[in-house]
Design a protein that fits this description.
The protein is mainly α and 93 residues long. The chain is built from 4 helices and no strands.
Length: 93
């Protein structure tokens, strides 16, 4: 992909960074306080970027993946050749 497309992808992926430890603790404390007040369970876990061939494969098979991006510099390429077919089968873009 070109430089402009890469910048767009990195900007998109930056929005889905995993939570920091401090942010996770703060979110969990807020959820615990809400549960203690009897407001019920609030599942406000943010979307996150997941990576790794085995992990992504599992997410696609369980239909939990929203989108899959495949790097073009994978060596050997045979590691990811089957991934587009799996994504089409599971209807994941």
């Amino acid at each position: 992909i070109g430089k402009n497309e890469a910048a767009g992808v990195f900007k998109l992926l930056n929005n889905y960074r995993p939570e920091t430890t401090a942010a996770k603790k703060q979110r969990q404390r807020g959820d615990a306080a809400a549960a203690a007040k009897g407001k019920g369970k609030t599942a406000n876990v943010p979307y996150q970027l997941k990576f790794g061939l085995k992990h992504v494969t599992t997410l696609v098979e369980e239909k939990k993946a929203s989108i899959v991006l495949i790097a073009c510099d994978v060596d050997p390429i045979e590691l990811v050749l089957w991934l587009p077919a799996l994504c089409r089968k599971m209807e994941v873009p």
